[in-house]
From TrEMBL, chain A:
Protein name: Heme-binding protein A
Localization: Periplasm
InterPro entries linked: Peptide/Ni-bd, SBP_5, SBP_5_dom
Keyword Signal annotated: yes
Automatic annotation (TrEMBL), chain B:
Protein name: Glutathione transport system permease protein GsiD
CDD domains, A to Z: TM_PBP2 (cd06261)
Subcellular location(s) per record: Cell membrane
One matching Pfam family: BPD_transp_1
Membrane spanning stretches: 6-25, 69-92, 112-139, 195-212, 232-255
Family: Belongs to the binding-protein-dependent transport system permease family.
Keywords for the protein's UniProt record, in alphabetical order: Cell membrane, Membrane, Transmembrane, Transmembrane helix, Transport
Biological processes per GO annotation: transmembrane transport
Amino acid sequence: MKMTLFAASVCALVAGMASAQTDITVGLQLEPPNLDPTGGASQAIDSVLYSNVFEGLTRFQGDGSVVPGLAESWDISEDGTVYTFHLHDGVVFHDGTSMDAEDVKFSLDRARAEDSTNAQKGLFAGITDVTVVDPLTVKVTLDGPNGSFLFNMAWGDAVIVAPESIETIASNPVGTGAFVFTDWVQGDRLELTRNDSYWGTKAALEKATFRFISDPTAAFAAVMAEDVDVFSGFPAPENLPQFEADPRFQVLVGNTEGETILSTNNKMPPFDNVLVREAVAHAIDRQSVIDGAMYGLGTPIGTHFAPHNPDYVDLLANSQYDPEKSKALLAQAGLADGFTTTLKLPPPSYARRGGEIIASQLRAVGIDAQITNLEWAQWIEEVFKAKDFGLSIVSHTEPMDIGVYANPDYYFQYDNPEFQALMEELNTTTEPAARSALFAKAQTILSEDYVNGYLFELAIATIAKAGVQGLWANQPTAAIDLTAVSWAE
Amino acid sequence: MNKSLFIGISISTVFVVLAAVSFLWTPYDIETLDIANKLKGFSIAHLLGTDHFGRDILSMIMMGARTSIAVALLAVGIGMAIGVPLGLVAAAKSGSLFDELIMRGNDLVFAFPSLVIAILITAVFGASAINAIVAIGIFNVPVFARLTRAAALPLWERDFILAARVCGKSPTRISIEHILPNITNLMIVQGTIQFSLGILAEAALSYIGLGAQPPTASWGRMLADAQTLVSIAPHTALVPGIAIVLMVLGLNLMGDGLRDWLDPKVRVART
């Protein structure tokens, strides 16, 4: 008997040594302010919880495509206004309650309610009714056909939550995903463990720890010392060549949905004059911004659209770097002697460094942009809410967000009825070719109106230890999806 | 002139000259970025290399010296202009309620950790060179007030002051005509030391982004910008770091040297 026990423990020991590591530590820069993806606007919430803890009816894959999530299939009515979702059988929330059509109805109704705090209420705007047909079937009625409805349902803001656990979701998120939330030490780390009763393919990792490291220097040190196995969104692109040269690490560079723009207050003189905005656009040398601020990471854009999207139109020619033309345009606008404005910059290095480069380029044509560095909270207050700014630099990381230009109250205050009508039309068009044409038209309007200075599409660098596999390189939405991540043997 | 005074004055003069020359000429224009030539090492074209925007670091150091000196000088100026008169009044009215008020007020300001309050001031009123000057200057006030009072008090007991009083001079005139000239040496020495602390404080505030804003050059911000570049372009951090060390060392040596040189007791012993 003793012998067998001993043999068994030796076997267990050997097995333990041979099998790969089953825990992972992931570093990231921003900490979520709370843990409710359906109630907070912060991208950091989705980074940690999307797909890992919470799932929606549909979900994004790493390449940006939308695949079935909690809904295993769906039927769309002839006129495109009724979606009947067939839910997976046997899905349970982490607290043991079952996930059924009632939960879907609850989640969608909660998100689209008058008093909803959902950061992306526009995703649900077209829903007129959600009906439970039976526990595994739910019928969603729209006020008109919406070509991007399934795409919208994949967003982190549209995940399915349960009425039983909604009260404490901000501190104790209960979802249906492959990982269960276990602990959150604010200012330091957040821990997940594997959901062994997961309905789909179970995760390979048993434990995942997210560590929040905001300082770029500390991030560099943490990766070099192997304190973290993965760093998602590494903040200092100048250090990437060192990691690439080091056999201990792999560097994944991918696309994001982040259009990085020189946000321009379209209501503040002199930016209310299109000639001035055009002058600003021609004063900017995008390539030196990309090289100087991002060490070459990033793709130039000429409008508010992701270049890896098939509907992207290359409109860079509208805003070529041409300081002479810029000066001529300023003279035409009656500002031959230039003018003074503000340039308010949030913390990321693309903004802080890009801001210094752009200020220098603007100075060359006579525009004195005075730099003020702001923390995120101040930026949200002063720029985003109070609209007290001339220029700013920020990356708009939401997927397919050209629609924000139809909102005249959005912080850059672009008010063009033609564009608003175009967006209305786009929302009711489902035919792909027609949608492409409308997208092209929308991009062209923005480019020719020089609404903002379009700089580049933000790239994301993820640094991982050599043995880590299954990470997303691209960021079709803010997410660090660990469900398919494993260690090589 | 003693050795530390000589070395201190030499180093400080170099920086003052660099700062002065920057008004007329710098090797390159630091407001024009040259991204293609970023992070270049030492060369004939760029004696101290280039930074992450391709700017000439020597030019940045020259312009940064100007910022540092201007901020520190004005901050010390504020401290002296307010602190010395307060100290003189407190000494003249020693023991009065007025004296108590001034000195306890000083204690209050002293009790605050100065850099933390400087951060608070610049964070509330906005980051700028002016606010940095005010923030650093406020904490120079009690230093000078206390020193002035301490130096002036024993003077009031001396016979020549008694003579002046007998002649009917008012305390204000005595303070200005007899006390002040006799404590000038002390003020100069303390001023030099406060000046070097001011340089450090300016660098610290700029380092955390609360000092002079870009494109104004500042040594502290050069250090902050170089933080993630230390492993690939160490000169971007070393050059401004060494500049700060040298400048502060020079001023401290000068302060020490001045004290020895100006102190009559030491001078008498020497002759």
